[in-house]
Amino acid sequence: MADTTLTLCVFIDAFGWRILERHEFLGDLLPVRGPVETIFGYSSTCDPTILTGKLPRDHGHFSFFYYSPATSPFRALRPLGLLPEAVAGRARVRRVLSRLLAGRLGYTGYFQLYSVPFWALPQFDYSEKRDLYQPGGINGGCTTIMDDLRRMGVPHYCSDWRLPEPDNLASLRARIDQGGLRFAYLYLASMDGVLHAHGTQSALVSRKIAEYDRELRAVIAQAQARHERVRVFVFSDHGMADVTATCDLQARMRSTGLRFGKDYVAMYDSTMARFWFLTEGARAATERALEAEPQGRILSDADLARFGCDFPGRKYGEIFFVADSGVLICPSFMGLRPIPGMHGYVPDHPDSTAMFATNAEDVAPPARLDGIYPIMRAEVGA
Ligand SMILES: [Zn+2]
User: Tell me: domain 3-57+132-239+348-379, CATH 3.40.720.10, correct?
Assistant: First the structure.
């Protein structure tokens, strides 16, 4: 057997600790397991933290959109604001347009317009313009585990996040068969969609976990046939909450009489809203309106510092409102209709918690998401 150790990292989007606790999943193969506190934000925040070991304020990634009219790549889209909502809001129209736009702007990262209204888009710039997994992908200039592997010349495999899961599983297995592999990073993201569409209690979620169990068993067995040691690390970025209520924050803001784009600008994500103020008094009026909303709260500066979301220049918002776990801001700029599952609530809520499981008896599950990078780094000799 020529090959010695293979480190196999498997990222499973939205596979929360609570969901893992309710299912049988590689229990015999990966006995060392535990909860991992997530990072405040969505996958666009969590994934850079996994790859770099840095908090959001340091890697510079948070939600996709931030207020910056001077640098907005979306100014040319302003005329589309005149389209009737039935056309402009259609998911397929937006998907096609997102693809065309990403091509024209030369973006290599994950790019989606979601449901951001065309009249609002020219206020915003986009944070994930580059592919996180390629050199120079991180806004803050930090190195990722992929950068480390490239620099150290470690023979490695990394999934292409643009491809469907079966393709990534097949390409990993083909690469293992070639031999000489030392480190692999498998990216599995489709359970996130199942959880959003059906909630955490659906039989489809259990079926998806059983499918992952089966597929990963086969990959591990194949790797073990070739390598003396296969060290497996399976982890997620965050959990998922079942949506139990919605909150119409935009209606609440309209009732203040403040004008979007004149007095203030807001980005309504699915679970949080972020505000920037343009006129005197707009901040106080906004705070009064948000404090009257019973299903969430304004995060204090101490909260943001604790979450590592105290961004230089308050780039991602002067104030952040976060909905209570299970409450969906709806309609938002991310979606117009309610869906059964959502994440992106405060990280210390149990439904937000991510998971970590391994067969490496010498490794303890990290307390928080930024602890995964040091573990991967140590695998290839830090
Ligand atoms: Zn998601």
Answer: yes
